[in-house]
Amino acid sequence: MSVLQLGFVSLRAQFGFNPDEAGRLFEVSKKVLADIGNVVPFDPMIMLKQDAIAANERMKSSRIDLLIMQIGTFPSGELLPLLVKDLPVPVLLWALPEPPFDGGALQFNSLCGVHLMASLLKRSHRPFDYVHLSPEGDTTELSRYLKAFEVARDLKKMRVGLVGSHTPGFDAMAVDALSLKEKIGPEVVYIGLNEVFQGAETVSKSHRETLMQQIGRQFHNAGELPTEKIDKFAKTYAP
Fold it and tell me: Which of 24, 50, 72, 155 is buried deepest, with most CB atoms within 10 A?
Protein backbone atom coordinates (compact mmCIF):
# COMPACT_ATOMS: atom_id res chain seq x y z
CA MET A 1 0.00 0.00 0.00
CA SER A 2 1.08 3.61 -0.53
CA VAL A 3 2.72 5.71 2.15
CA LEU A 4 0.40 7.98 4.13
CA GLN A 5 0.15 11.50 2.75
CA LEU A 6 -0.04 13.68 5.86
CA GLY A 7 -1.16 17.25 5.34
CA PHE A 8 0.28 19.32 8.17
CA VAL A 9 -0.52 22.89 9.20
CA SER A 10 -0.15 24.98 12.32
CA LEU A 11 -2.57 27.76 13.23
CA ARG A 12 -1.71 30.85 15.25
CA ALA A 13 -3.27 34.02 16.60
CA GLN A 14 -2.59 37.38 15.00
CA PHE A 15 -1.62 38.92 18.33
CA GLY A 16 -0.27 37.77 21.68
CA PHE A 17 0.99 34.44 23.02
CA ASN A 18 4.37 33.05 21.91
CA PRO A 19 4.31 32.35 18.15
CA ASP A 20 8.10 31.95 18.00
CA GLU A 21 8.10 28.96 20.36
CA ALA A 22 4.99 27.54 18.66
CA GLY A 23 6.78 27.88 15.32
CA ARG A 24 9.81 26.04 16.66
CA LEU A 25 7.62 23.17 17.82
CA PHE A 26 5.95 23.15 14.40
CA GLU A 27 9.35 22.42 12.85
CA VAL A 28 10.08 19.71 15.41
CA SER A 29 6.69 18.16 14.70
CA LYS A 30 7.46 17.89 10.98
CA LYS A 31 10.46 15.69 11.78
CA VAL A 32 8.36 13.49 14.07
CA LEU A 33 5.73 12.99 11.36
CA ALA A 34 8.35 12.32 8.69
CA ASP A 35 9.18 9.05 10.47
CA ILE A 36 5.60 7.88 9.92
CA GLY A 37 4.50 9.15 6.52
CA ASN A 38 5.09 11.64 3.74
CA VAL A 39 4.57 15.11 5.24
CA VAL A 40 2.88 17.77 3.10
CA PRO A 41 3.38 20.93 5.17
CA PHE A 42 2.18 24.46 4.64
CA ASP A 43 4.56 27.21 5.67
CA PRO A 44 4.44 29.55 7.45
CA MET A 45 1.97 29.09 10.29
CA ILE A 46 -1.57 30.03 9.27
CA MET A 47 -2.69 33.34 10.72
CA LEU A 48 -4.79 35.14 8.08
CA LYS A 49 -7.67 34.10 5.83
CA GLN A 50 -5.49 34.21 2.73
CA ASP A 51 -3.09 31.81 4.44
CA ALA A 52 -5.92 29.34 5.06
CA ILE A 53 -7.08 29.58 1.43
CA ALA A 54 -3.56 28.95 0.14
CA ALA A 55 -3.11 26.00 2.50
CA ASN A 56 -6.41 24.54 1.34
CA GLU A 57 -5.30 24.65 -2.29
CA ARG A 58 -2.00 23.00 -1.46
CA MET A 59 -3.66 20.18 0.45
CA LYS A 60 -6.21 19.50 -2.29
CA SER A 61 -3.56 19.39 -5.02
CA SER A 62 -1.40 17.05 -2.91
CA ARG A 63 -4.20 14.50 -2.48
CA ILE A 64 -3.58 14.03 1.23
CA ASP A 65 -5.08 11.20 3.29
CA LEU A 66 -5.34 13.13 6.56
CA LEU A 67 -5.11 16.77 7.61
CA ILE A 68 -3.18 17.25 10.85
CA MET A 69 -4.03 20.63 12.30
CA GLN A 70 -1.71 21.71 15.08
CA ILE A 71 -2.88 24.63 17.16
CA GLY A 72 0.25 26.69 17.74
CA THR A 73 -1.44 29.60 19.49
CA PHE A 74 -5.17 30.22 19.91
CA PRO A 75 -6.42 31.03 16.35
CA SER A 76 -9.47 32.63 14.84
CA GLY A 77 -12.36 30.25 14.15
CA GLU A 78 -12.78 31.95 10.77
CA LEU A 79 -9.75 30.07 9.47
CA LEU A 80 -11.26 26.61 9.76
CA PRO A 81 -13.97 26.70 7.04
CA LEU A 82 -11.46 28.11 4.55
CA LEU A 83 -8.90 25.49 5.45
CA VAL A 84 -11.13 22.42 5.08
CA LYS A 85 -13.35 23.61 2.21
CA ASP A 86 -13.86 20.82 -0.36
CA LEU A 87 -11.17 18.77 1.37
CA PRO A 88 -12.78 15.32 1.86
CA VAL A 89 -10.38 13.93 4.46
CA PRO A 90 -10.55 13.46 8.24
CA VAL A 91 -8.89 15.96 10.55
CA LEU A 92 -6.55 15.26 13.44
CA LEU A 93 -6.36 18.19 15.87
CA TRP A 94 -3.06 18.52 17.72
CA ALA A 95 -2.96 20.44 20.99
CA LEU A 96 0.40 21.50 22.40
CA PRO A 97 0.78 21.25 26.19
CA GLU A 98 1.12 24.62 27.88
CA PRO A 99 4.59 25.37 29.28
CA PRO A 100 4.80 25.70 33.09
CA PHE A 101 2.81 28.75 34.20
CA ASP A 102 5.02 31.37 35.83
CA GLY A 103 2.31 33.88 36.60
CA GLY A 104 2.61 35.70 33.28
CA ALA A 105 0.58 35.32 30.08
CA LEU A 106 -0.32 31.98 28.51
CA GLN A 107 2.23 30.91 25.91
CA PHE A 108 -0.04 28.94 23.56
CA ASN A 109 -3.61 28.43 24.82
CA SER A 110 -3.49 25.52 22.35
CA LEU A 111 -5.86 23.11 24.05
CA CYS A 112 -8.54 25.79 24.21
CA GLY A 113 -8.02 26.35 20.49
CA VAL A 114 -8.55 22.63 19.87
CA HIS A 115 -11.82 22.83 21.80
CA LEU A 116 -12.94 25.61 19.48
CA MET A 117 -11.97 23.76 16.30
CA ALA A 118 -13.55 20.52 17.55
CA SER A 119 -16.83 22.33 18.19
CA LEU A 120 -16.82 23.83 14.70
CA LEU A 121 -15.95 20.52 13.05
CA LYS A 122 -18.69 18.71 14.96
CA ARG A 123 -21.25 21.32 13.95
CA SER A 124 -20.29 20.83 10.31
CA HIS A 125 -20.40 17.01 10.66
CA ARG A 126 -16.73 16.58 9.80
CA PRO A 127 -14.90 13.50 11.15
CA PHE A 128 -12.03 14.41 13.47
CA ASP A 129 -9.93 13.23 16.37
CA TYR A 130 -7.34 14.88 18.58
CA VAL A 131 -4.07 14.36 20.44
CA HIS A 132 -2.59 16.43 23.26
CA LEU A 133 1.17 16.03 23.39
CA SER A 134 4.51 17.70 22.81
CA PRO A 135 6.60 16.68 19.78
CA GLU A 136 9.59 16.74 22.13
CA GLY A 137 7.99 14.32 24.59
CA ASP A 138 6.36 10.91 24.34
CA THR A 139 4.70 10.74 20.91
CA THR A 140 3.50 7.12 21.21
CA GLU A 141 -0.16 8.18 21.14
CA LEU A 142 0.38 10.03 17.86
CA SER A 143 2.28 7.21 16.15
CA ARG A 144 -0.31 4.62 17.24
CA TYR A 145 -3.13 6.75 15.93
CA LEU A 146 -1.46 7.24 12.55
CA LYS A 147 -0.63 3.54 12.19
CA ALA A 148 -4.25 2.65 12.97
CA PHE A 149 -5.41 5.30 10.51
CA GLU A 150 -3.17 3.77 7.84
CA VAL A 151 -4.67 0.32 8.40
CA ALA A 152 -8.20 1.76 8.19
CA ARG A 153 -7.31 3.58 4.97
CA ASP A 154 -5.85 0.43 3.40
CA LEU A 155 -8.90 -1.62 4.38
CA LYS A 156 -11.10 0.77 2.42
CA LYS A 157 -9.07 -0.04 -0.70
CA MET A 158 -8.95 -3.80 -0.14
CA ARG A 159 -10.66 -6.41 -2.32
CA VAL A 160 -11.22 -9.83 -0.73
CA GLY A 161 -11.82 -12.88 -2.90
CA LEU A 162 -14.51 -15.28 -1.68
CA VAL A 163 -14.31 -18.68 -3.36
CA GLY A 164 -17.61 -20.56 -3.46
CA SER A 165 -20.29 -20.01 -0.83
CA HIS A 166 -21.34 -21.32 2.54
CA THR A 167 -23.02 -24.71 2.88
CA PRO A 168 -26.85 -24.54 2.82
CA GLY A 169 -28.16 -24.24 6.36
CA PHE A 170 -24.91 -22.74 7.69
CA ASP A 171 -26.16 -19.18 7.40
CA ALA A 172 -23.93 -18.06 10.29
CA MET A 173 -21.01 -18.61 7.90
CA ALA A 174 -22.40 -16.20 5.30
CA VAL A 175 -20.52 -12.97 4.61
CA ASP A 176 -22.52 -9.75 4.89
CA ALA A 177 -20.70 -8.01 2.06
CA LEU A 178 -22.73 -4.80 2.27
CA SER A 179 -22.11 -4.30 6.00
CA LEU A 180 -18.44 -5.19 5.60
CA LYS A 181 -18.05 -2.56 2.88
CA GLU A 182 -20.02 0.06 4.80
CA LYS A 183 -18.44 -0.35 8.23
CA ILE A 184 -14.85 -1.41 7.48
CA GLY A 185 -14.25 -0.90 3.77
CA PRO A 186 -13.17 -4.09 1.97
CA GLU A 187 -15.02 -5.12 -1.18
CA VAL A 188 -15.93 -8.81 -1.48
CA VAL A 189 -15.25 -10.29 -4.92
CA TYR A 190 -17.15 -13.54 -5.53
CA ILE A 191 -15.28 -16.32 -7.35
CA GLY A 192 -17.21 -19.38 -8.48
CA LEU A 193 -15.90 -22.89 -7.86
CA ASN A 194 -16.17 -23.65 -11.58
CA GLU A 195 -13.70 -20.83 -12.26
CA VAL A 196 -11.28 -22.31 -9.73
CA PHE A 197 -11.53 -25.82 -11.12
CA GLN A 198 -11.06 -24.60 -14.68
CA GLY A 199 -7.91 -22.75 -13.64
CA ALA A 200 -6.66 -25.84 -11.81
CA GLU A 201 -6.59 -27.80 -15.06
CA THR A 202 -3.93 -25.43 -16.44
CA VAL A 203 -1.39 -26.24 -13.68
CA SER A 204 1.61 -28.13 -15.10
CA LYS A 205 2.41 -31.68 -14.01
CA SER A 206 5.84 -30.67 -12.65
CA HIS A 207 4.29 -27.92 -10.52
CA ARG A 208 1.68 -30.35 -9.17
CA GLU A 209 4.33 -32.90 -8.26
CA THR A 210 6.33 -30.27 -6.37
CA LEU A 211 3.24 -29.27 -4.44
CA MET A 212 2.35 -32.88 -3.69
CA GLN A 213 5.81 -33.38 -2.15
CA GLN A 214 5.30 -30.30 0.02
CA ILE A 215 1.90 -31.61 1.13
CA GLY A 216 3.48 -34.96 2.04
CA ARG A 217 6.03 -33.19 4.25
CA GLN A 218 3.43 -31.02 5.98
CA PHE A 219 0.87 -33.76 6.76
CA HIS A 220 2.20 -36.99 8.22
CA ASN A 221 -0.89 -38.96 7.18
CA ALA A 222 -1.12 -37.61 3.61
CA GLY A 223 -0.09 -41.03 2.32
CA GLU A 224 -3.39 -42.47 3.51
CA LEU A 225 -5.19 -40.55 0.75
CA PRO A 226 -5.40 -41.71 -2.85
CA THR A 227 -2.77 -40.07 -5.07
CA GLU A 228 -5.44 -38.60 -7.35
CA LYS A 229 -7.03 -36.82 -4.37
CA ILE A 230 -3.73 -35.22 -3.38
CA ASP A 231 -3.11 -34.27 -7.01
CA LYS A 232 -6.50 -32.57 -7.21
CA PHE A 233 -5.83 -30.76 -3.93
CA ALA A 234 -2.42 -29.57 -5.19
CA LYS A 235 -3.59 -28.20 -8.51
CA THR A 236 -6.64 -26.54 -6.92
CA TYR A 237 -4.52 -24.59 -4.44
CA ALA A 238 -1.56 -23.98 -6.77
CA PRO A 239 -0.53 -20.28 -6.70
Answer: 72
Separation of alpha carbons 214 and 212, rounded Å: 5
Instruction: Report pLDDT for 239.
Output: 65
Q: For the chain, what are the domain ranges?
A: 5-156, 158-191, 192-239
Q: Would you state the CATH architecture of domain 5-156?
A: 3-Layer(aba) Sandwich (3.40)
Provide the sign of the torsion angle of the four alpha carbons 137, 146, 43, 47, taken in this order. negative
Q: What tens digit of pLDDT does each residue of 144-186 get?
A: 999 999 999 999 889 988 888 888 888 888 888 888 898 888 8
Rounded CA separation 66/5 (Å): 7
Strands (E), the chain: 5-11, 38-41, 66-71, 91-95, 128-132, 159-163, 187-191
Query: Is the dihedral angle over the CA atoms 144, 148, 154, 160 positive or is it negative?
Result: positive
Residues pairing with 46 in the sheet? 11
- DSSP letter (8 states) at residue 108: -
User: What's the predicted TM-score (pTM) here?
Assistant: 0.80
